[in-house]
Design brief:
509 residues, alpha/beta, twelve-stranded mixed sheet, four-stranded parallel sheet, 23% strand, globular
Amino acid sequence: MPDEYHGIPQLISLDGHRVLYVAHALSCSQRGRAIVRLWNVNLDAMFPRSGRQFPKRRRRHYGRIVLVLDEAVAAAPSADVLRSYDGHYPDDETHVAGVVRAEKSNRIAMEKPPQHETTTAADKEEDHISKLPDDILVQILSLCPYRTLMRTVSVSTRWERLLSQLPDLTFCLSLPVDTLSEERVQSMARTLRRRCADHHAIKTLRLVYRKDVAMECRYADDMIALANATKLVLTPHVGMEFLPGEEFLPDADAGAWSLQLPPATVELQVLPFSYAVRPPRIHGADISALRSLTLLGPTVVSEDFSLAATVFPSLEDLHIGECTLAVSMSISSDTMPRLKHLRFTNVSVRTDDTKAAITVLADDLRTLRMSCPWYSKTESLSEPLMFSCHYGATAVFTKYSLFRLRAPKLAVFEWRCCYADEVRIEAVGRLSDVAIEVAAGRTRTPTPIGTEPKYVTIQQRDKLVTDILQGLMPGLQPRTWKDVRRKCMQRDDRWLCFEDTTSAYPATE
C-alpha cells in the first residue's frame, strides 16, 4: 500500500472479493483521527445479528475501531461479511488486515475446478462468432461506438480487416461535458484514413462535434471530405462553458457556419443540439446531388435562414422539426424545384407575440405533413389547472399567423394539432389521403400562479377545420359541402377530426 494511504481504511480486492481494509498504522499520537475511505460497505456484514464482534484484549483500541466502522456504516451501502478478531492489532504490524470471512475464500477456492479442467472445457466450447460470415460481422461492428470498435477489431487479424468494410461509421469527437482532446480526435481521423485506404464506399458517416471549438470543426470538415459518404449525419453542439445557463436558449449564438457537401452525398441530416448552433449555409459544386435534407433539433430560423436562400436543384425530401421561428418561413419552387415531400414537426414560434407565417409554394409537391403536439397542446377544462415552469425558449402556445399553401400536384395532406390565425389554400391536386385533427381546450398556463389561462374555443376549432376543408375541396372532389361535413367526426368534447383515404363520395341527386 502506498504511503499516502497509511492510516486510511480501504476497500481492496483480494482473490476477487471485496475487503474492508482497516490499515491503521497509527502511532499513539494518531489515535482517534482515523480517516475513512468508503466504497460499498455492507451494513449487515459489519454488524451481524449476533452483535459487534470485537476482541476483548487491548480494549484501548476499541474506541478507535468503533470510530472507523461507524463512519463507514454511516456512509455506504456492500462488502463481504466480517469475521471475528483474527489476532492482529494496529500496533502489532504496519497494516491491520481486517475482516474478511476466511472460510468463504477457502470454500470458493476449494470449489474451483483445477486449471487443466477449466482449459479443457474452454477448448471444447465452439466459437460461434467466428463462424459468422463477414457481412454479418460488419453489420454488428457498424453499431459499436468508436472505443468499442477499436478494441474489438484488435482481437484478430480477421476482425482488423473488417474495419475496411464497415459501411457506417460514427465518430463522437466530444460531448458537452467532455474534456477537449486533440489526441483523441487525431486517433479517429487516422482510423477514417485507414478505412478509406481500401476504396470501399462509406454509406453513412455520423459526426458529433463542438461547433465552438475551431480544432474540432477543422477535423470535422476534413473527415467529411475524406469519407465522401452517401449519407451524412451531423450533430453540432457547444460546450457547457459556452454562455453558461444560456446554451439552450434561442438568444445564444455560436456564429454563422457553412458546410461543403462532398460529391457522393445524397442525404444530409443536421441535428443541432443547442439553440446556439444555427442552420448552416450549404454549398459545394455537387450540391445538385442532394436528394434528402433534414433539419431536426433546437435551432432558430431567423431572417438570414440559409436553407430558404440556397438553391437545391434535385432536392425531393425536406424535413424541418423542433426548431423555433423568429420570423416567417417560406418554401418555394424557386429554390427547390423538384421538392416532392415536405414535413414540419414541432416547429414553434419564438414568443407569444411573434407573428410567424409558413408559406409553401411548391409546384411539384406531392406530400405535406404538419404536426405540432409539443408546443400546441391543449387540456380538457375538466382537468385541474396546472401551472408550468416556462423557461422562455419558445412561446407558451404556438400559433402561426398565416399558413399559405399552393401545391397543384398535392396528393397527401396531414394537419395534426396545429393552429393558425388564417389558413389560405390556393391550389391542391387530387387528394388520396387527408387527415385533420384539431382540439379545443385550455392551453398551457405558465407561472406565476394566478396567471389567467388561455383557451382554444370550440368556435375557433371549427373555423380552423372549416377553412382547411374549404381550401381542400377541389382536391376532394365532393358533390356538395354536405358530403365533406359528413366525414367530420367529433372524437370527444375537444377533438374534431376528418379522415379520408379514398376520396370516394357517393353521388347525390
